[in-house]
Amino acid sequence: MSSGSLRRRAQSGILARLRGHLVVSCQAPAGSPLKATAHMYAMAEAALLGGAAGIRAQGYDDVQAIARLGHPVIGLIKRDEPGSAVYITPRACDVELLAAAGAQIVASDATGRTRASGETTEQLVAAAHQSGALFMADVDCVDAALAAVEAGADLVGTTLSGYTLGPIPHEPDIELVAELARRLTVPVVAEGRYRTPEQVRAAFDACAWSVVVGGAITDPVALTRRLVSACSHHLLPETLGDDA
Ligand SMILES: CC(=O)N[C@H](C=O)[C@@H](O)[C@H](O)[C@H](O)COP(=O)(O)O
């Protein structure tokens, strides 16, 4: 058995560690003052202290640092490529890098949109498996999920639901979680716009394997904005100005 297959067999224990648990996505958006590996590492430590079972992390350096904490890591590399809308781990070489950095699971766009490289989901799955990692398909709909499982994905996330067509909804897509859990035999991860304990519970009620929460925990800029929008200075008539 190749070293990749041996390592991958060990990784299936990773799925058991995530079952029924919260995974926290520790990623800082471009321009955030928190965009540094040290900050994301501290964020991951805080999430684990709070009871998260795993971390979703972006970029080689963050994945490598966070993997040292000894908990399951879902790794991805976000990269815009000309001529394609695919930006989550678009290439097989990204998959190999993430596995080398210590990600036991590599997440990649599996929406069915064409990758700039022309590589297929089968090729990215093969790269993950040869590197000893599991492949998480980030999908937006049922058809994409079915195709990803056919291509060999080990787990499927609703990560990209609401991000491939029209305006981004406010609520998470719990219906998609329920539908995928009914139709797939691989674990279904609920991800995207989860903000409250009620939503997390609803995802588990819909048979999610794990729930990934990002911005509601790790984006203080967005969290501050939400509360600032309720402050009374927004309600003052403009004519009063700041000195009133
Ligand atoms: C759509 C996309 O690019 N999602 C990314 C995937 O890695 C991240 O930016 C999200 O933060 C993550 O999916 C968690 O979602 P939320 O931050 O909504 O809890």
Automatic annotation (TrEMBL):
InterPro entries: Aldolase_TIM, NanE, RibuloseP-bd_barrel. It catalyses: an N-acyl-D-glucosamine 6-phosphate = an N-acyl-D-mannosamine 6-phosphate. Gene3D superfamilies: Aldolase class I (3.20.20.70). The keyword Isomerase applies. Keywords: Carbohydrate metabolism, Isomerase. Pathway: Amino-sugar metabolism; N-acetylneuraminate degradation; D-fructose 6-phosphate from N-acetylneuraminate: step 3/5. SUPFAM superfamilies: Ribulose-phoshate binding barrel (SSF51366). Pfam families: NanE. One of its GO terms (molecular function) is N-acylglucosamine-6-phosphate 2-epimerase activity. GO terms for biological process: N-acetylmannosamine catabolic process; N-acetylneuraminate catabolic process. Converts N-acetylmannosamine-6-phosphate (ManNAc-6-P) to N-acetylglucosamine-6-phosphate (GlcNAc-6-P). This is N-acylglucosamine-6-phosphate 2-epimerase. It comes from Microvirga brassicacearum.
